[in-house]
Amino acid sequence: MSIQQLEQTYELAVYPRRDIVLVRGRGARLFDENGREYIDCAANVGVSNIGHGNQTVARAVHDQYLTLGNCYSMFYSPVRAHLAQKLASLAPGNLNRVFFCNSGAEANEAAIKFARSSTGRQEIIAAMRGFHGKTMGALAATWGPEYQKPFAPMLPGLKHVPYNNLAKLEAALGDNTAAVLLEVVQGEGGVRIGDKGYFQKVREVCDAQGVLLIIDEVQTGFGRTGTLFACEQFVEPDMLCLAKSLAGGIPMGAVLCNDRINVPVKSHTSTFGGNPTACAAALASMEVIEKEGLVEKSRARGKYFLQELGRIESNKIREIRGLGLMLGIELKEKAGPYVQQLMEKGIIVLLAGATVIRLLPPLVITREEIDRVVAALKDTLGD
Ligand SMILES: Cc1ncc(COP(=O)(O)O)c(C=O)c1O
Hints:
This protein is α/β, with parallel strands linked by helices. Helix content is 37%, strand content 19%. A hairpin with a 2-residue loop joins β1 and β2. The site of pyridoxal-5'-phosphate has 15 residues, from α5.
């Protein structure tokens, strides 16, 4: 059987598949089983910010696994301690304590629980078109009947309001609201960038009513938008949810919390959360981000990318949006067929909703690679 047939036979068919078998990656390039090269503008949906095949992370994982690969958080661990300290030093404001887990959904699950236990209230307000993961708690916060309906009933107490609309949010807040949960740039929802003014007001309204503000940076974290954390450009949250690129491609999630967050001992735990192998990978990944100036690169290359995309003359394009190296091309028609055509031209991109082509390249992408991507997009979408 071919690789495709094996996966189709032995795995649940929950992922829409693209018909290539990827076997190797280096920097912003991917290679399939036939040796064909692709420029990666997906980065595993924002996981591979530091690029594929990074030696520093590979060595850190290798060395830590052989030293002590796992250490349940009931015991202390030097590498976990140093990572917690590092994250607290990098995080904006007073986000000085962390809970470690393994994925984005898990980070949001934890944040929802922490919000309820810290406030004694039950309701969480999230946004339409928001995406927070697909486990039962996170799914209740994720927008979209197509995701929720097969798994009803949802966790009670979750409400959705239109994104970037203060009046609707204020109207939804009540005495039982524990937290507001938002992305500062909606990723899956179509690369929609929030207004700074909106987020500042959300902060004020939350403070006035004793409501916590949770920002989900699972996709926007670690340089993606041109600052280490995207919220630095918008607002200071009470909890910051992280995952994807946190550990340079090794599974890890985290919730950074300020002093308003209180959780009883044993009320939330995770066997793998904060395991030394992932912690070593995260520390190494942050070293790479700093040494290679990837946050600055994201800002500069993102600006260049956006400018070059703006030069494409196309009747098919409705709008181009971007912050750092998180870019969206909204079309006037369905984007799926163009995603396929781009892959055939050696460019891997993502969809975000039905009509948006989303570009999330590794932050190590070069100007020459960006030029090749823009040329392929011009060829595919141009008039
Ligand atoms: C903003 C955001 N939150 C949460 C998630 C869920 O993360 P995971 O797939 O690791 O559970 C994602 C995944 O795309 C995301 O983009």
